[in-house]
Amino acid sequence: MPAWLTALDRYFPIRYLVMLCCGAMALGGVIGWWALRLDPWIALVGIAGLGIGLRDLRQPQRSVLRNYPVIGHLRYLLEFIRPEIRQYFIESDNEAAPFSRQQRSLVYQRAKGDPDKRPFGTQLDVHQQGFEWLNHSLAPTTLATHDFRVTIGAGRAQPYSASVFNISAMSFGALSANAILALNGGAKQGGFMHDTGEGSISAHHRTHGGDLVWEIGSGYFGCRDDAGRFSEEKFVANATDPQVRLIEVKLSQGAKPGHGGVLPGPKVTIEIAQTRGVPVGVDCVSPAAHSAFSTPVELLQFLDRLRTLSGGKPVGFKLCIGHPWEWFAICKAMLATGLRPDFIVVDGGEGGTGAAPLEFTDHVGAPLQEGLLLVHNTLVGLNLRQHIRLGASGKIVSAFDIARAMALGADYCNSARGFMFALGCIQAQHCHTGQCPTGVATQDPGRQRALVVPDKIERVRRFHENTLHALKELVQAAGLRHPGEITAGHIVRRVSNDQVRLLRNQLCFVRPGELLAAERGECDWPHQVYEIYWPLAQAGCFAPTDPSDTALTVRELAT
């Protein structure tokens, strides 16, 4: 866009131009009709357009219309004829990325409470390699509720009964104040968790009182001193708040694992500065690495310290799997110290809401399947799995996505972009520009007012409820009592045109205690990833004992 147009848009948003033209047409038409006795149709059209624009600015249901009065109706007109245009000229509902139109429509329908059924059979190619389905039972069960729960931190002073479907980490600053208000209000009404993201706990997180997972990143926002180091005093002030139910230390995230971040000074508003505990107008830096610990043992000691300071609340960490020996080093530290996290969230390299360099988005970090399977198998093989809950995050929006993650070892799932769709996100992918058309990912007061909080609270609640209701139906169809009973023996994958396999037979699954037995020489290693990389890991350091022996990738090995 030319510089002069950008400057004009700063002082008078061009998106209001059509409504202004309608007003000018109405004024000119009235003058022409009154003074020159011209045909009044110009005045009538202008008055109608101006009336529509004013109504668009005030209506609470559609964010696009509140930000783009009058002209925003063009989107709905094009959307109305879109199926026919796509059918004859463009693409199917399953080709768009990162999320297909079918996936987005499913979220929209469930969030609005509209029918989400599909007629005339699947649009997917059931003979395509990689197609998966859930085996059903001829003796289905009948369940009384879809409110599936899992206890995190059993045996701790303040354990938490969590829903199996929750809001993943999205910070205030990345999301608008209205988006945070709506997400937390929906979490409160629906009884599920809302992860704060590393931007800490804002006033908007506290307004409705929904259960919070306080994520602490390398910038220690909300619990840092003036030098950016961890502050016990500030941590205690937030961590002991009854609204905070879990403490999560972010080691890495799927959107940009191994990459820090900078919020430029001009974007650090008074509100964001107060939330994060940083100076107003100064670059807000999230380093790539933590300063509170530097070894696996120190990481576990830090987690234990946070648990004590918070009064016994469950404490864990989130990571996207990279070098396998680093994950094994954490496990060896667990065995050596007896210290364990209460939960681990595995974030998939599929990315998320955070903006990142294209190379990181496309080519850094293990995808969810490989990362989750490696973490689950390792804990099983070390007899630690029963003590640690596993969360999964990475393109999870449907009940089948949840079921599949649980088949790979997850206890519960988190979704970020799914709940953004529930807020009205249209996948415009302007999240990093501040020009979100629906007011979800922006700090522009004019844009975020388009997101009407009471309406979106209901949408967030309904999306969660209707997704879990669909999960309940899948669990019943499989003849089970809880989604935690879904295993890799329930999911089938097509591996070629004429061959299918259970995930249990397609992927490697480790038996309880098998890694301990292999280390003692009592059996073979269950997979090359353990045979090669387990000896390289050391509890006292993230670096491998032999850095040159790193030929195999996580993706090659985990499958």
Please describe the topology of this protein:
Elements: H1 3-11, H2 17-35, H3 41-58, H4 63-67, H5 73-89, H6 101-112, E1 132-134, E2 149-152, E3 160-163, E4 165-167, H7 177-190, E5 194-195, H8 203-206, E6 212-216, H9 232-239, E7 244-250, E8 261-263, H10 270-276, E9 284-286, H11 296-309, E10 315-319, H12 324-337, E11 343-347, H13 358-363, H14 368-381, E12 389-393, H15 399-407, E13 412-415, H16 417-423, H17 445-448, H18 453-477, E14 491-496, E15 499-502, H19 503-506, H20 514-519, H21 528-533, H22 554-558
Parallel strand pairs: 4-13, 5-6, 6-7, 7-10, 10-11, 11-12, 12-13
Antiparallel strand pairs: 1-14, 2-3, 8-9, 14-15
Can you walk me through this structure?
It is a single chain. This protein is of the alpha/beta class and 559 residues long. It has 22 helices and 15 strands. It has helices at 3-11, 17-35, 41-58, 63-67, 73-89, 101-112, 177-190, 203-206, 232-239, 270-276, 296-309, 324-337, 358-363, 368-381, 399-407, 417-423, 445-448, 453-477, 503-506, 514-519, 528-533, 554-558; strands at residues 132-134, 149-152, 160-163, 165-167, 194-195, 212-216, 244-250, 261-263, 284-286, 315-319, 343-347, 389-393, 412-415, 491-496, 499-502. It has an eight-stranded parallel sheet. Strand 12, helix 15 (399-407) and strand 13 (412-415) form a beta-alpha-beta unit. Helix 7 (177-190) crosses helix 18. The two termini are 47 Å apart. Mean pLDDT is 89; it is low at 550-559.
